[in-house]
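Why does residue order matter? Because the sequence determines the fold. Keep that principle in mind as you read this record.
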Amino acid sequence: MKITGTFDVALEPMETYAKGVEGNNLGRMSINKSFHGELSAESKGEMLSAMTSFKGSAGYVAIEQVAGRLSGKSGHFVLQHFGVMESGQDKLILEVVPNSGTGDLTGLTGKMKIRIENGQHYYDFEYSGV
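Structure:
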């Protein structure tokens, strides 16, 4: 199954444990999202990031707990993010953590892509198992 929709996101800086050195800055942020469309859900999570001294090169990892309805089925699941950017070219992977689905979403597997167009955030979610 493939679905597409929009989402709103708010990121808030949090205190970091590790500090960057020699031009590499580490950061930590909270994630709060509202998904709209066939995925009608709220999520909360945390992001760790590294910004390098080279413009357009960075990396991040994140985990977010998603709670709501997916194509009419209710439950929770966890998304894991892995992103890198090199000279402005990004690679981003979001996957459902295996066996994280609950309720009607038990058995959920899938991958999500994120797009930003004219300031609006979109998700493309390809999933199965429910």
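The chain is about 0% helix and 70% strand.
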